Amino acid sequence: VIFSRGISFLIALKATTLFLCFAYLKNLGFTLFSLPFLYYSLISIASHPSINLPILLGKTTDGSFPLFSLIIFSPYIYFVRIFSLLRRLRSGEPTYTQVHEGLYFPRVKDFTTGLPYCCFPTWYTRSPQPADIESAVKWASRQRDLNKPIFVHCAYGHGRSVAVMCALLVARGITEDWKNAEKLIKQKRPYIRMNALHRKALEEWSRHQLSAPRK
């Protein structure tokens, strides 16, 4: 049941539970002991995807978190990492999935170690902006022109990375549009699940005819 819930729901549940613990302990007179629960609750609220401010985490261009972020947002970062690990183990997905020649979904970022890396910070359950999708597609296309493999990843490889891969498949002339690209990916990776935000971003990216498909 836990894994069927979205990360947004779980973070909201965690924030509420922690705040109730804070209120309960404070009401009993344990003010000092209650403060960590208040801190963790506020961090969970600030980290909720509805806030949609990935800049708060200070993620670097190589996809890593700076020390200050690991300390301040540790309740959120490690909660999500553990949840992601358990969810991946439960799904039984392979280490990587090849969508097309040279285009892959790695299960974890470590699989891309040693390769050129480009990061577009995007909150869980949110979508890359059309401009970010365009930048990612252009970067990946340049790398692919050099005959380098492309690994597109997020936490699960089910939403944000799928949106970028859909655009990349269109831009490379592999599929006619992002909807057909999604179908192609789903054949290779059955657990993908883009939401309305991902589809809206792809529609906007398509409408502006960014990265014209190759002939």
Summarize the structure.
GO terms for molecular function: hydrolase activity. Helix content is 52%, strand content 5%. The chain has 215 residues and is mostly helical.
Summarize the SSE layout with pairings.
Blueprint: H1 7-27, H2 31-46, H3 67-72, H4 74-91, E1 96-100, E2 103-106, H5 130-145, E3 150-151, H6 160-171, H7 178-188, H8 196-207
Parallel strand pairs: 2-3
Antiparallel strand pairs: 1-2
Helix pairs in contact: 1-2, 5-6, 5-8, 6-7, 6-8
Key words describing this protein structure:
mainly alpha, about 5% strand, elongated, 2 domains, Protein-Tyrosine Phosphatase, Chain A, about 220 residues, 8 helices, three-stranded mixed beta sheet, single chain, 3 strands
Kindly describe this structure.
The protein has 215 residues and is mainly alpha-helical. The protein folds into two domains: 1-92, no CATH class; 95-215, Protein tyrosine phosphatase superfamily (Protein-Tyrosine Phosphatase, Chain A), CATH 3.90.190. Helix content is 52%, strand content 5%. It is built from eight helices and three strands; from the N terminus they run H-H-H-H-E-E-H-E-H-H-H. It has a three-stranded mixed beta sheet with strand order 1-2-3. Helix 1 (7-27) runs antiparallel to helix 2, helix 5 (130-145) packs across helix 6 and helix 5 (130-145) packs across helix 8. The longest helix has 21 residues, at 7-27. The model has no long low-confidence stretch (mean pLDDT 83).
